[in-house]
């Protein structure tokens, strides 16, 4: 694992407005902006989604840690995501507000993750 200080791209239950956002992120983030992850598909999972590389895009949010909270935020997300079948990788995301391309940590499905059907449109909030 690398120690690079990067923002985090979240696309499921950790997005602002989703049920795990306040539970795990409240007070730990400084900025939260809409963003998309190009080159990925979103799959349904056992109560939460999985992103995998593919021909599509995934809607989500780009989160920047609050001042002095980066290590804590990274640790909380790793403890939550890795046992659930994700692996943290660096990917390029596009910030919706200004179209900027930025490197960010993204939790993608690890090998063997319980992938369900593809979510058309790549947006967990707009799934059927």
Automatic annotation (TrEMBL):
Gene3D superfamilies membership: Gamma-glutamyl cyclotransferase-like
InterPro entries: AIG2-like_dom, GGCT-like, GGCT-like_sf
Domain of life: Bacteria
Domain annotation Gamma-glutamylcyclotransferase AIG2-like: ranges: 8-124
Any Pfam family: GGACT
The name this protein goes by in its record: Gamma-glutamylcyclotransferase AIG2-like domain-containing protein
Provenance organism: Streptomyces showdoensis
